[in-house]
C-alpha cells in the first residue's frame, strides 16, 4: 500500500463521523426523549466540536439520518446544519421520512450508505478518516470504507452480545429478544465492523476485556482506551445563584425541607438504570431520610401513557413505589426539564452538599458521573463497568453493588456523613475531570491515534488513477448476473440484446457474475451477448473494462488487504458438507465450495469460525449449493458501487438484476433492482418488502425487460444524448 505524504493531501484532516439513529442537532439535545436519543447523541456532537477546534483538523462532518416527521422538530429535516469552527451535521435521507427506532432501521442502512457516498463524492475532497458510532453506523461505515478506500475507526457505545446476555438473564427468551431487538443482525454488524476497523475506541479497559472479549473477531491490539470528554464550560462548580432558577423552584415544590442535601439520580426511564433500587435504599434507611432529599430526573413527560412501553413501566412503578413507601415531601420527581437545566441540576445538588448516584445494573462508561464530578459533586456508582475507571481517576466517590439497596444506602451515607471528606472528594473530582475527561485532552489523544493511520493509508480509492475513463453521455447503467438472470429465458434474450445494442452509446452495460473472466467471456460468446462496458467477475473480486478487458488494478490492490486464503482453506477444510469446487472455479481472491446444507454448518457458523481465526472475509451462499469466500472488501455490490462512483453514475439510475444470495448486496440500497421470475426463492425472499426492488413475473431476460418497462428506465435516454451532441 502506498504511503500518503503531506504533499498528497490538503493541509488539515477531514474527519467524517457517522451516527445513524436517534435525534441529533447542534443545540437543545432532547436527551432522554427515548432510548435512541441519549449519551451517544451528546457524545458525537461534542466530539465533532472538539475535533473541529483542533488546528490539525480542517473539517468535521457528522453524518446522521434525516428525519422529516411532524411528531418531532423540523430541525431534524434540515440537510446541513453548521456547528462551530468547521463542523457540520449532515443529514442523509434513508428509508421512510419519519422517525424510526434503531431496531427497525436495519433494512434502510444500505440506502443510508448509498446516500452518504453520493454526498461525500460531491464534496471538494473525500474524508481522510471515517469514525462510526454503534452497530448500525459500524455497518454503514464498513461499507463506505470498503467502497471508497478510507480508513475506519469505530466506537461501539453499547454491544449486542452484552445486551443479549443481560436480557436472557432477566428471563426473556431468545426468540422474543430477536423479534424485539433484531439482535442477530446487530451482532453480525458488530463482528463485520470489528473486522473492518483500523482501531476501536473504548471508554474503559473493562470494555475491552469483558465486553469485546465476547466477540469472535476480538483483537485487543486494535483497541484503544480514550475516555469521552465533557464540556467544562457547561459543567462546572456552583456559582451561587442556582436556587433562583426556574428548575430549582420546580424541584423545591416537591420538598418539605428543600434546604437538605440532594441525592440526585439522572437518567433515562430504563429498567437497566435501576432507579427503583435507589428509591428502596432511600426509603429503608432512616438516617438518609432524615438527612437528605431524593431528586429523580428521568426524562420529560406530559402523559406517561404516551411514552413507550418500557418508559411507562419504569415511571409507573416509581410513582407507585413513592406512594407505597409514603415518600411525599422527600422525593422530587419533576415532569419537565430543558437540556440547559441539566448542568444547573448538578450544581444544585453540589451547592446543597449532596451526592450523585448512578445505580445502573451495568454501565459501559457513565458520562453522567463525569458531568457530576465536573460540577463538584461526589458520586456513588455501580461497581459494574466504566465507573471503576472513573473513580480510580477522580478519587471522588464509592462503588456499590447495584443489586443491594443496603449497599447503596451505606455508600451515600459514607459521603454525606463527613463534610471534610465530602469537600476533599469534590475537589479531587474537579481535578480528575480536568486531567482525564476534558474534551481538549480527548481530542489530542484521538488525533495522536489516528494521524499515523491516515499517514500510512494510500489516497482514497477514487483518487487513484484508473485505466478507464467514464463514458461520455452515459448517465445510467444496467448490471445483471449471467446464469440465472440473463440466460435463463433464451426466448426473451434476443429482444434484450437488441435494446442493449440500441443504447450501447448511452447506457452502460455491465455483467456481475460469480464466474471467472474466461468462463464468463465463453458463455457470453456462446449466447451472442454484446461486449459489456464493465465485467465484474469472481463474485466482485475482479473488474475489467472494455474494449481491451483492462483490469482495474486499483481495485485488486484494495481488496487484497487482510486476505489470507491458506488460513481460510485450512479452517473450511475441516468442516463436513463442504467440498472444494474444481480449479477452474477458483480464483486468486475467491475460494469456491459445494455445500451440502444437511451436513455443513450454516453461513453464520462459518463466519463465526473464520472470525475466531481472525479472518476477515465475505461468505456468500448461492442457490443453496454453492459457497464462495472472498475478501471482506469485495462483493458484487461493493464492486458495482465502486464502478458507479468512478464513472459518476447515480445509483438511482442503475438497474440491477439478480437471482441468488450472492446478488443481495447489489440489490439493497438506492439501486433499482429486479428479482427475475425464476428466482422468487428463499435466498432473496427477505427483499420482498423493500422499496426499489421489483419482483418480475417473467423469468431471466424477460424479467429484466419487464423491469425496464416497470421503472421506465430508458425514458429520455436518446433525447439526452441528442442534446449533448
Q: What would you say this structure looks like, in words?
A:
It is a single chain. The chain is of the alpha/beta class. Helices cover 39% and strands 16% of the residues. The protein has 27 helices and 26 strands. The strands form four sheets. It has an eight-stranded mixed β-sheet with strand order 3-4-2-1-5-6-7-8, with helices on both faces. Strands 19-18-17-16-15-24-25-26 form an eight-stranded mixed β-sheet, with helices on both faces. A six-stranded parallel β-sheet has the order 11-10-9-12-13-14, sandwiched between helices. It starts with 12 loop residues before the first strand and ends with a helix. The relative contact order is 0.09. Residues 1-8 have low confidence and may be disordered.
Give the fraction of residues assigned to helices. 25-40%
- Radius of gyration, taken over Cα atoms and rounded to an integer in Å: 28 Å
Secondary structure tally, helices = 27
Look at the helices and sheets and give the structural class: alpha/beta
Strand content: 15-25%
Main β sheet profile: 8 strands, mixed
The whole-number mean of residue pLDDT values reads: 91
Q: Report the end-to-end length measured between terminal Cα atoms.
A: 41 Å
Shape: elongated
